[in-house]
Amino acid sequence: MEPCVHRGIIAPGALAASVLLLAIPASAAPHSPGAPGIGDPYYPAYGNGGYDVSHYDLRLKYQPATDELEGTATLVARATQDLSSFNLDFLLDVGEVRVNGAKASFRTSGEQELEITPKTPLDRGSPVTVVVRYRGVPSSEQAHGFTSWHRTPDGGVAANEPEAAAWWFPSNDHPLDKATYDVSVLVPNGTQAISNGRLQSTSSRLGWTRWNWRSDKPQATYLATLAVGKFDITTGTTEGGIPVLNAYSKDLGAHAGAARASIERTGEIADWLAGYFGPYPYNALGGYVPNTGTGYALETQTRPFYSPRQFAGGSNVSVVVHELAHQWYGDEVSLKRWQDIWINEGFARYAQWLWSEHEGEGTAQELADHVYASHPADDPFWTVKPGDPGPENQFDIAVYDRGALAVQALRNRIGDKAFFTILKGWPAKYAHGNASVADFRRYAEEVSGEPLAALFDTWLFQPSKPGAPAARAAKVAKAGKGAPQPRSWKRIASTNGVHGH
Question: What start-end ranges are recorded for coiled-coil regions in this protein (predicted)?
Answer without folding.
Answer: none
